[in-house]
Amino acid sequence: MSEREALLAGVGETLVAIRARLGVDVEDAARSAGIEPERLAEAEAGETALDERELAALAERYGCAVEAFFGGRVTPLSYLFGA
User: What does the pLDDT look like over 41-53, one tens digit per residue?
Assistant: First the structure.
């Protein structure tokens, strides 16, 4: 597994954990953040990266900072643009 794949997988697991803790399903979370449900599901599965706008919208919906998706770190450029 490459570093980027590991990063995508880790962010995906975190997205699922936060959403589940809030008791929200993928459809509701995605739609309230202005994201297609399929896209959020792919991000949660570690298959794709969300862009900055999508991350910010989800963070607002989930009541957390974007950094929470990355273990408290600023969004790594390798997440947004690959490495």
Answer: 999 999 999 999 9
